[in-house]
Structures are given as structure tokens and as C-alpha cells.
Amino acid sequence: MTDLRLFLHRNKGIIYLLAGILIFICVIVNALIIPLIENQSARIYTLTVTDKAFSAGSLFTKHKYFVFGEDAQGHGYMFVNRDSVLSGKYNSDDIYAELIRGNTYHLTVVGHWIPILEKYPNIIQITELVNKHGSDIDG
To answer: Which pTM value belongs to this model?
Structure first.
């Protein structure tokens, strides 16, 4: 046996333990630390809703509502609309139903887009500004 193979063979238990600890740390960071950081970053966007989509959950994931929109300059955005214990938001179904394509809203969102973790900014609150018929909601 080569030196490396011998080392790996003799220390197999320690290597498995270290791998388990690393996986545990990654799970904790993804489940606890990232959501805590996300909730410190509330921002408000003024967007016209261009589309909505629903992603059914699986055995291990919850369903998600996706909302697509454009700002006044034509920049496109995508947000997720899901319940958030840390934000005290439990009305994602209601928010999804209230959002109407073509209407303009102030969207309060938290979080950031992290592609490798499939994390998207989450809509926490909406305020309708203009409906698709051009009527000003605020007065």
C-alpha cells in the first residue's frame, strides 16, 4: 500500500467524523444563519407584476410562489413568496392571490439571490399602487 492509502485506511473513522461535522455545519448555516442574515436586509421595490408561477413542494420541500416584475426602467426581477417564521409572515397564499398581473406594487422583500442554494429574495409585504386599468390606488 502507498503511504496515502495506508493513512486513509488507518484513519477512516476520523475522516468520516470530520466529514459528518462538515455536513452538519453546512446544514446549520443553511437552516439558521443565512435566514437570520436575510431578515436584516429588508428592501422596498416598486414593480409592475408581469407574471406569477407556482412550484409544488416535494416530500422534503415546501411549495413556493414565484413573482416576476419590472421596475419603471424596465429591469426584470424575480422574487419568491413563501411563509417565513423569522419575519412573522404566514400569508403567502393570500399575497399570491392578491398580486395581479399588470398592477404596480410596493414589494417589501428580505434576503438575496444565492443561486447555489436556490435562495431568492422573499416578499414579506405588498402595497398596491396602480391597477392595470391605470387607477391610482393611493389617491
So the answer is: 0.67
